[in-house]
Amino acid sequence: MQRKKKVPLLEFSNVSAQRGTTTALNDITLSVDLGENAAIIGPNGSGKSTLIKLITRECYPIQNSSESFIKILGETVWDVSRLRSMLGIVSPDLQEICNRRISGRDMVVSGFFSSIGLFPYQYVTEDMIDQANSILDLLNISHLADRSMTDMSAGQARAMLIARALVHDPQALILDEPTSSLDPSATRKFLKSLSELAKAGKSIIMVTHHIHDIIPEIDRIIMIKNGRVFADGSKKELIKESVLSELFSTPVEIQKKDGFYYLLR
Hints:
Number of strands: 11
Helix content: 25-40%
Largest sheet: 6 strands, mixed
Order of helices and strands: EEEHEHEHHHHEHEEEHHEE
CATH topology of the domain at 1-73 and 205-265: Rossmann fold
Radius of gyration: 19 Å
Strand order of the largest sheet: 5-6-7-3-8-9
Distance between the termini: 55 Å
Number of helices: 9
Protein backbone atom coordinates (compact mmCIF):
# COMPACT_ATOMS: atom_id res chain seq x y z
CA MET A 1 0.00 0.00 0.00
CA GLN A 2 1.35 3.42 -0.99
CA ARG A 3 1.75 5.80 1.93
CA LYS A 4 -0.14 9.06 1.76
CA LYS A 5 2.24 11.98 1.39
CA LYS A 6 2.35 14.30 4.39
CA VAL A 7 0.88 17.71 3.66
CA PRO A 8 2.93 20.70 4.96
CA LEU A 9 1.24 23.10 7.33
CA LEU A 10 2.47 26.09 5.33
CA GLU A 11 3.96 26.16 1.85
CA PHE A 12 5.15 29.28 0.02
CA SER A 13 6.41 28.98 -3.55
CA ASN A 14 7.96 31.96 -5.37
CA VAL A 15 5.82 34.39 -3.37
CA SER A 16 6.22 38.16 -3.65
CA ALA A 17 4.13 40.84 -1.97
CA GLN A 18 3.88 44.62 -1.90
CA ARG A 19 2.91 46.95 0.93
CA GLY A 20 1.90 50.16 -0.82
CA THR A 21 4.56 50.77 -3.45
CA THR A 22 7.24 48.85 -1.54
CA THR A 23 8.14 45.24 -2.30
CA ALA A 24 7.96 43.67 1.16
CA LEU A 25 8.63 40.06 0.10
CA ASN A 26 10.56 39.02 -2.96
CA ASP A 27 10.30 35.47 -4.36
CA ILE A 28 9.93 33.66 -1.02
CA THR A 29 9.95 29.86 -1.07
CA LEU A 30 9.68 27.90 2.17
CA SER A 31 7.73 25.08 3.78
CA VAL A 32 6.85 24.33 7.42
CA ASP A 33 5.64 20.86 8.33
CA LEU A 34 2.66 20.08 10.49
CA GLY A 35 3.86 19.56 14.06
CA GLU A 36 7.10 21.49 13.49
CA ASN A 37 8.21 24.31 15.79
CA ALA A 38 9.89 27.14 13.90
CA ALA A 39 11.02 30.73 14.38
CA ILE A 40 11.05 33.27 11.55
CA ILE A 41 13.51 35.99 12.53
CA GLY A 42 14.92 39.09 10.94
CA PRO A 43 15.39 42.82 11.45
CA ASN A 44 12.53 45.33 11.47
CA GLY A 45 11.24 45.95 7.95
CA SER A 46 12.54 42.63 6.63
CA GLY A 47 9.06 41.39 5.61
CA LYS A 48 8.25 39.12 8.57
CA SER A 49 4.87 40.69 9.41
CA THR A 50 3.88 40.69 5.74
CA LEU A 51 4.46 36.95 5.79
CA ILE A 52 1.88 36.65 8.61
CA LYS A 53 -0.59 38.91 6.79
CA LEU A 54 -0.35 36.68 3.70
CA ILE A 55 -1.31 33.68 5.85
CA THR A 56 -4.27 35.50 7.43
CA ARG A 57 -5.37 36.92 4.05
CA GLU A 58 -4.94 40.51 5.26
CA CYS A 59 -2.87 41.05 2.12
CA TYR A 60 -2.38 39.05 -1.06
CA PRO A 61 0.68 38.05 -3.09
CA ILE A 62 1.67 39.30 -6.50
CA GLN A 63 0.94 36.55 -9.02
CA ASN A 64 4.34 36.10 -10.61
CA SER A 65 3.68 32.83 -12.43
CA SER A 66 1.75 29.56 -12.30
CA GLU A 67 4.45 28.31 -9.91
CA SER A 68 3.67 31.08 -7.41
CA PHE A 69 1.31 29.97 -4.63
CA ILE A 70 0.58 29.84 -0.92
CA LYS A 71 -0.82 26.60 0.47
CA ILE A 72 -2.14 26.04 3.98
CA LEU A 73 -2.57 22.34 4.78
CA GLY A 74 -2.35 21.66 1.06
CA GLU A 75 -5.11 24.06 0.02
CA THR A 76 -4.75 27.36 -1.84
CA VAL A 77 -8.33 28.57 -1.30
CA TRP A 78 -9.69 29.01 2.22
CA ASP A 79 -12.78 30.39 3.89
CA VAL A 80 -11.25 32.90 6.34
CA SER A 81 -13.43 31.82 9.29
CA ARG A 82 -12.43 28.17 8.72
CA LEU A 83 -8.80 29.20 8.40
CA ARG A 84 -8.94 30.95 11.77
CA SER A 85 -10.19 27.75 13.37
CA MET A 86 -7.22 25.81 11.96
CA LEU A 87 -4.51 28.31 12.89
CA GLY A 88 -4.41 30.21 16.17
CA ILE A 89 -2.91 33.57 15.24
CA VAL A 90 -1.89 36.19 17.81
CA SER A 91 -0.33 39.52 16.88
CA PRO A 92 0.16 43.04 18.31
CA ASP A 93 -2.48 44.27 15.82
CA LEU A 94 -5.01 41.78 17.24
CA GLN A 95 -4.18 42.81 20.80
CA GLU A 96 -4.85 46.45 19.94
CA ILE A 97 -8.22 45.53 18.42
CA CYS A 98 -9.11 43.41 21.48
CA ASN A 99 -8.43 46.18 24.00
CA ARG A 100 -12.12 46.58 24.85
CA ARG A 101 -14.38 46.39 27.89
CA ILE A 102 -14.92 42.67 27.51
CA SER A 103 -14.28 40.11 30.22
CA GLY A 104 -11.40 37.73 29.71
CA ARG A 105 -13.74 34.73 29.58
CA ASP A 106 -15.97 36.36 26.95
CA MET A 107 -12.90 37.21 24.90
CA VAL A 108 -11.80 33.56 24.99
CA VAL A 109 -15.27 32.23 24.13
CA SER A 110 -15.51 34.68 21.21
CA GLY A 111 -12.75 32.66 19.57
CA PHE A 112 -15.41 30.07 18.67
CA PHE A 113 -17.07 32.71 16.48
CA SER A 114 -13.92 34.48 15.19
CA SER A 115 -15.36 37.68 16.65
CA ILE A 116 -14.04 40.24 19.12
CA GLY A 117 -16.31 39.69 22.10
CA LEU A 118 -19.78 38.16 22.13
CA PHE A 119 -23.01 39.37 20.51
CA PRO A 120 -26.69 38.57 21.29
CA TYR A 121 -27.18 36.56 18.08
CA GLN A 122 -24.35 34.15 18.95
CA TYR A 123 -25.41 30.99 20.76
CA VAL A 124 -22.90 30.14 23.48
CA THR A 125 -23.11 26.55 24.72
CA GLU A 126 -22.07 25.10 28.06
CA ASP A 127 -19.43 23.08 26.23
CA MET A 128 -17.89 26.29 24.88
CA ILE A 129 -17.74 27.80 28.37
CA ASP A 130 -16.25 24.58 29.78
CA GLN A 131 -13.63 24.52 27.03
CA ALA A 132 -12.74 28.18 27.67
CA ASN A 133 -12.43 27.55 31.42
CA SER A 134 -10.20 24.52 30.80
CA ILE A 135 -7.83 26.59 28.66
CA LEU A 136 -7.78 29.40 31.22
CA ASP A 137 -6.76 26.78 33.79
CA LEU A 138 -4.12 25.37 31.46
CA LEU A 139 -2.52 28.80 31.06
CA ASN A 140 -2.89 29.64 34.78
CA ILE A 141 -4.99 32.72 34.06
CA SER A 142 -8.36 31.65 35.52
CA HIS A 143 -8.10 34.51 38.01
CA LEU A 144 -8.43 36.92 35.06
CA ALA A 145 -11.63 35.39 33.66
CA ASP A 146 -13.94 38.14 34.96
CA ARG A 147 -11.52 41.04 34.55
CA SER A 148 -12.02 43.49 31.68
CA MET A 149 -9.45 43.31 28.90
CA THR A 150 -8.88 47.06 29.38
CA ASP A 151 -7.81 46.43 32.99
CA MET A 152 -5.20 43.79 32.15
CA SER A 153 -1.48 44.30 31.73
CA ALA A 154 0.00 43.72 28.26
CA GLY A 155 1.25 40.29 29.34
CA GLN A 156 -2.10 39.26 30.80
CA ALA A 157 -3.95 40.38 27.67
CA ARG A 158 -1.45 38.50 25.47
CA ALA A 159 -2.01 35.31 27.47
CA MET A 160 -5.79 35.79 27.12
CA LEU A 161 -5.42 36.01 23.34
CA ILE A 162 -3.42 32.79 23.35
CA ALA A 163 -6.34 31.20 25.23
CA ARG A 164 -8.75 32.62 22.63
CA ALA A 165 -6.62 31.12 19.85
CA LEU A 166 -6.61 27.70 21.52
CA VAL A 167 -10.38 27.17 21.88
CA HIS A 168 -10.56 25.42 18.50
CA ASP A 169 -7.55 23.21 19.26
CA PRO A 170 -5.83 24.65 16.16
CA GLN A 171 -3.18 22.81 14.17
CA ALA A 172 -0.62 25.46 15.12
CA LEU A 173 -0.13 28.72 16.99
CA ILE A 174 1.33 31.49 14.84
CA LEU A 175 2.73 34.33 16.94
CA ASP A 176 3.80 37.69 15.52
CA GLU A 177 6.32 39.53 17.75
CA PRO A 178 5.03 37.60 20.80
CA THR A 179 6.77 39.61 23.53
CA SER A 180 6.45 43.12 22.11
CA SER A 181 5.39 45.60 24.82
CA LEU A 182 5.94 43.01 27.60
CA ASP A 183 8.24 43.77 30.53
CA PRO A 184 10.95 41.23 31.50
CA SER A 185 8.79 39.49 34.13
CA ALA A 186 5.79 39.19 31.78
CA THR A 187 8.08 37.98 29.00
CA ARG A 188 9.44 35.15 31.17
CA LYS A 189 5.95 34.03 32.19
CA PHE A 190 4.66 34.23 28.63
CA LEU A 191 7.54 32.25 27.14
CA LYS A 192 7.18 29.64 29.89
CA SER A 193 3.54 29.18 28.84
CA LEU A 194 4.60 28.75 25.21
CA SER A 195 7.17 26.14 26.21
CA GLU A 196 4.51 24.19 28.10
CA LEU A 197 2.21 24.28 25.06
CA ALA A 198 5.03 23.08 22.79
CA LYS A 199 5.86 20.25 25.21
CA ALA A 200 2.18 19.26 25.13
CA GLY A 201 2.42 18.87 21.34
CA LYS A 202 1.12 22.19 20.05
CA SER A 203 3.06 23.41 17.01
CA ILE A 204 4.53 26.90 17.54
CA ILE A 205 5.50 29.20 14.67
CA MET A 206 7.00 32.41 15.95
CA VAL A 207 7.83 35.58 14.01
CA THR A 208 10.22 37.88 15.87
CA HIS A 209 13.32 40.05 15.74
CA HIS A 210 14.28 39.12 19.33
CA ILE A 211 16.30 35.90 19.61
CA HIS A 212 15.42 35.68 23.33
CA ASP A 213 11.84 34.89 22.22
CA ILE A 214 12.97 31.57 20.75
CA ILE A 215 11.86 28.93 23.25
CA PRO A 216 14.07 25.83 23.67
CA GLU A 217 11.46 23.65 21.93
CA ILE A 218 12.00 25.55 18.66
CA ASP A 219 14.85 24.18 16.55
CA ARG A 220 14.05 25.34 12.98
CA ILE A 221 15.19 28.89 12.22
CA ILE A 222 14.12 30.75 9.07
CA MET A 223 15.91 34.08 8.60
CA ILE A 224 14.39 36.86 6.49
CA LYS A 225 16.33 39.90 5.29
CA ASN A 226 15.34 42.51 2.71
CA GLY A 227 12.24 40.51 1.78
CA ARG A 228 14.12 37.31 0.98
CA VAL A 229 15.03 34.07 2.77
CA PHE A 230 18.50 34.79 4.11
CA ALA A 231 19.05 31.38 5.74
CA ASP A 232 17.05 28.32 6.77
CA GLY A 233 18.34 25.65 9.12
CA SER A 234 18.70 24.41 12.68
CA LYS A 235 19.26 26.60 15.73
CA LYS A 236 22.72 25.06 16.16
CA GLU A 237 23.65 26.07 12.61
CA LEU A 238 22.23 29.59 12.58
CA ILE A 239 22.17 31.07 16.09
CA LYS A 240 25.80 32.08 15.81
CA GLU A 241 27.44 35.47 16.23
CA SER A 242 28.76 35.52 12.66
CA VAL A 243 25.37 34.67 11.11
CA LEU A 244 23.35 37.04 13.31
CA SER A 245 25.85 39.88 12.78
CA GLU A 246 25.29 39.56 9.04
CA LEU A 247 21.51 39.21 9.42
CA PHE A 248 21.15 42.33 11.57
CA SER A 249 24.00 44.22 9.86
CA THR A 250 25.75 44.93 13.16
CA PRO A 251 28.28 43.07 15.33
CA VAL A 252 26.57 41.00 18.04
CA GLU A 253 27.59 38.83 20.97
CA ILE A 254 25.46 35.90 22.16
CA GLN A 255 24.93 34.39 25.57
CA LYS A 256 23.09 31.10 26.12
CA LYS A 257 21.31 30.36 29.39
CA ASP A 258 18.73 27.67 30.28
CA GLY A 259 18.10 26.86 26.63
CA PHE A 260 17.54 30.52 25.62
CA TYR A 261 19.81 32.79 23.60
CA TYR A 262 20.40 36.47 24.35
CA LEU A 263 22.03 39.23 22.33
CA LEU A 264 24.49 41.19 24.49
CA ARG A 265 24.90 43.91 21.90
